[in-house]
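INFO batch 0412 | record 1 of 1 | parsing
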Amino acid sequence: MGTRGGRFVTGRRWNGEMAELELKAESEHGLVLPTHIRGLNLNLDTIEQRARAGSLERLGPRLYRIPGSPRTWRQQVRAAVEAAGPGAMASHWTAAALRGLPGFDEDWDRIEVTRPRARKHPGLIGRVHESRRILPEHCRPVDGIATSSISRTLFDLCGSRDVHSFRTERAMANALNAKMVRPAELRMTLVQMARRGRRGSALFAALVEACAGGGPATESEMEQLVLAVLRNAGLPMPQTQVELGAADGWIGRVDFLYTEARLVIEADSERHHASWLDRDADRRRDAALVAAGFRVIRVSWRQLRTDPTTFTAAIRAVLATAAG
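INFO prediction complete | emitting C-alpha cells
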C-alpha cells in the first residue's frame, strides 16, 4: 500500500497500476522509466516502497527493472542511456555493436554512452563520455535505444584509446561497402566534428580520405557542407542557387547569396572547378559580380575541412559591416 497524489492506494489498485507499468516496460526492454511513473501520476514514495518489497528492482534514480524480465545486454544499454540523463545516447563501442558493425560484439563490461557536457546527472551505469557537440543528426534510435549515427560512431571510435585504428578502418570500410553509411555523411561529420586538438580528428580525416575518397563528388554535396559549417558557426542561412544579373544583362547563378549584404559565396567542388578553364570562367564571373556591386567569397572542400573558422570569420565580418 502507499499514496498516489496524496490518496491512499490499495493493493488492488497497485496491482492495476503495476500491470500498466509492465505493459509500458515491454517496449523499453523491461525497464520502468521516469516518463512511465509521471504518466501514471504515481508517488515516488510508493514506487520506492514497492521496490523495497520486491515488486520492482531499483537500478538508479527513478529507474527500475521489472523483476522476471529477461536480463539482456540491450536492457543494460537502455538503462545506461537513461541513467546518463537527457540527450544521452549509446556511443563508441556500444553503438558499433548495436548497429552490427563487424568486430564489435555485445560486451557487458564495455557499455559506453555519450551525453551533453555539463549535464548535472550522475550517470551511474557504464562509461559516460561528455561532448559539447551532439547535433540532432548524430543520434538515430536502434531498437528504441538512442544511439549515435554510424558516421558519429566512427568518429568517436577514432578518438577512443581502447580501439585500434585498424579496427576502426575496417569498420568504416565495411559500413561503406554494406551501404550502411554514405561518403557524404562521413564528410559531413568530418566538417562538423573535426577540429585541431579534438581527439580522433586527424585519424577520422585520414580514414575518410582513404575509404571515402578525397573531396566531395558533387556540387550539391559541397553546398550541404557549406550550410553545415555556417550553421555550426551560428551564422544566418543564405539563399541558395540564386540567379543574378547586372544592368547590361545576366551574370549567372550563384551558390549562396546574403541579399542585404550583397555577399555571394561560391562553393568550389573539385569535380567542377579543377581545370584551368573552370578557374578562368570563375575569375571572369567574379569580376562581373564585383562590378555589379557584390562581394564574392569562394570556399573549397579542403578549406572547409582544415580551416573552416577563417571562412566563417570572413562571412561574419562582411555581414557585420553591412549591418552597421
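INFO post-check: DSSP finds 13 helices and twelve strands in the chain.
INFO record closed
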